[in-house]
Amino acid sequence: MTEKEAWQLLGLSPEAGASDIKKRYRQLICAVHPDSGAAKSVHDAQKLNAAYSLLKKRAVHGPRGTGSHPYSKEQDGSGFQSDAKAAKPAAWDAPVNPHAYREREILHNAEDQDGTVLGAFCIAKGKYLWSLQEDFPLFQLSIYRCSALILDEIDRSLSRNAPFIRQRVQAELSYFLAQQFIDAAASLKKLAREERTDSAGRTIYRFSAMLEYEKTAQHGRTALPRLGPLADQEPLYPAALRRHKLYLKNGAGKELGYLSFPDDRLYYIVIPLFEQRRAQVRIEADSGEESGKCPASGYQRLKLWLRFSEENRSGLPENLSLRIERLLDSYRKAGK
């Protein structure tokens, strides 16, 4: 799609500003929402999305020729292919992971002129990596839908109702699929609160994190441990990985709870790095300007410094597909 075609599709002149482009896009995308009854709504939405993406970048970076396109190379530096390799413009502007087990939907929230969300619908489909321009809850929904579709296909092929283990298998499948659509190295850089290098020139990222205190059963109900708040800058250490959670212990070796994040996106980035043994961390209690919480509140604020290793590449997309196949094989055998 050319800029001229994009302007014509949105019905705007090249003098329109970013706010005008966004306002007009919202008006048009609402008109092609499936609930509106419009014909070929998905195709029209894809065209509108491509036009909006093109003109939004023009409004920020200027006309073509004034700067390089962020995905103009066949490889984006992460080892994943870029959509620039395609012969025609893609419906969604993001790198792809050719090793992903299955394509997924790119979902978009349709809004009315007041910004009220009318619903989510698919505007593109492919092996696209998650990027900051994609709303993360919609990314999670797309992964859930992808996992549900895979399991539905298996159940139909076996002419059976969903077995009792489906919920557990779908949660595990969704976790593996999400990893295939997230570029950890690129995401760490974008989401870090601070970035610096060590004496060897390796990058260290700092993130806000939380210690979620593990609840215990007492007198027939769950209760938090009877501990005082951690001292400011008190160090914590990885204790164990269980059920895709990293449990932490104090200097005395007592396991306190598991690592969590105020930003849900980091869970799908940091925890897999530990499972792949590609991360080194330093963790300490944070009781600075925003005072740390005591166990009565269920969590304690933490500071986490992470160093990411490119050397150990076990558990990357190719191996994840094998793990998915093993998981699905066990699901096919369920109930036999």
Automatic annotation (TrEMBL):
The keyword Chaperone belongs to this UniProt entry's keyword annotation: no
Chain positions covered by the region annotation Disordered: 61-84
Domain of life: Bacteria
Domain (J): residue spans on this chain: 5-79
Gene3D superfamilies, alphabetized: DnaJ domain (1.10.287.110)
Keywords from the UniProt entry: DNA replication
Gene Ontology biological process terms in this record: DNA replication
Protein name: DnaJ domain-containing protein
SMART domains membership: DnaJ
Source species: Candidatus Eisenbergiella merdavium
